[in-house]
Amino acid sequence: MSETQSKPTLRWRVAQFLERQWWQRYLRGKSPEEYLRNKKAYWQRTLEQLEWTPVPGRKVLDAGCGPAGVYIYLEKIESVSALDPLLDSYESELSIFDRNDYPGVRFLAQPLEQAFDGEGTFEAIYCFNAINHVSDWAAALDALTAHAQQGTQLLMTSDVHRHKLLLPIFQALPGDVLHPQQHGPEAYRMALQQRGWRIEKEEVLRREAIFDYTAWVATFK
Fold it and tell me: Dihedral (C-alpha) 73, 77, 82, 86: value to the nearest 10 degrees?
């Protein structure tokens, strides 16, 4: 990875600061136990909707896991490494996250673009609502691919632009400050295919005025 790729942008640093504030506001007054229970149920429903079956003992990565990523559902099924640059902040600021509650999960407190060579490759990679949070989109996708092996499965979701006219406006201006990366569905398809991923499924999970929350299931060729 080049030095240019590894330098976080100002837009990304602002988004990371606001992400911490968003979680604190969102969780205010919520029961941590109830929130985590509901979140586990959400992850189970989402995987079932996408016809994705966890495999016992499979080595997997939860990339951009946040404080309550899919690892909270998978941790007793698959062998999970969970990565997020804000893990230390989440642990000190949020009542829902304590890494001691997940002794079987290996946590990596770092950006996705940063090398994490000690992990080797994974049999499956989860990247839920995270790839549009990164500083360097291409480098993050390169990193995911570098940790794939022949036959690795990828489940990735992101907000993608529905309207081509709005996309360049959002790319130029911080109209969506929590998400430094703004792309349309064609850019995601091309980026995956250029890196050797065969897209098996693309499904819109939620439609909003500007964005489609879209999922891709892909296999590394």
Answer: 20
CATH number where 152 lies: 3.40.50.150
pTM: 0.87
Each residue's pLDDT tens digit, 74-113: 999 999 999 999 999 999 999 999 999 999 999 999 999 9
Report residue 143 as tokens: 């990193």
Structural domains counted in the chain? 1
Residue with tokens 């005025």: 209
Question: What tens digit of pLDDT does each residue of 142-176 get?
Answer: 999 999 999 999 999 998 866 565 556 555 555 56
> Contact, 136 vs 184, CB < 8 A?
no
Task: Round to whole Å and give the CA distance between 78 and 104.
Answer: 9
Between CA 66 and CA 178 the distance in angstroms is: 13
Nearest to 36 by CA among 126, 122, 96, 99: 96
- Determine contact, residues 34/42, Cβ cutoff 8 Å: no
Q: Rounded to 5 degrees, what are φ and ψ at 149?
A: -125, 175
The rounded distance, in Å, linking the Cα atoms of 13 and 7 is: 10
Report yes or no on 21 lying in a domain. Answer: no
Q: Kindly list the distances between the CA atom of residue 177 and the CA atoms of 88, 128, 153, 180, in Å, as whole numbers in the listed order.
A: 22, 18, 30, 6
Instruction: Count CB neighbours of 44 within 10 A.
Output: 14
Q: Are strands 197-207 and 122-127 parallel, antiparallel or unpaired?
A: unpaired
Length of the chain: 221
Whether residue 195 contacts residue 139, with contact meaning beta carbons closer than 8 Å, is answered with no
